[in-house]
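A further point concerns the way the authors explain their paired sequence and structure data. The central task, working out the structure tokens from the amino acid sequence alone, is never made concrete. I therefore recommend that a typical entry be quoted early in the introduction. An entry of this sort, consisting of the sequence and the corresponding backbone structure tokens, reads as follows:
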Amino acid sequence: MLYFIGYDIGCSRRRRRIARLLEGHGYRVHDSAFVAHLRDGAYGALQRRLQGLLHAQEDRLRVYPLCERDAPDRLTVFGPPAEDPPSHVVL
């Protein structure tokens, strides 16, 4: 499944840790936003690791599942893309 992940993390150290974790699972589309192709088991593992890094009272992170079949028709990008997505992501 394709996921859009966005966050607002106040602590720079936690923000860097979360960004590194997400970079290992998808690609950055903005400073605090990622897109990732994850299988169910990989999503569950990522979710557990993120919960271990987040501070419940200070941090916000949202994960939105996207339909891969419809994404090309429904996704609109204005301006240059942040970076090209990798051809393969190994989990």
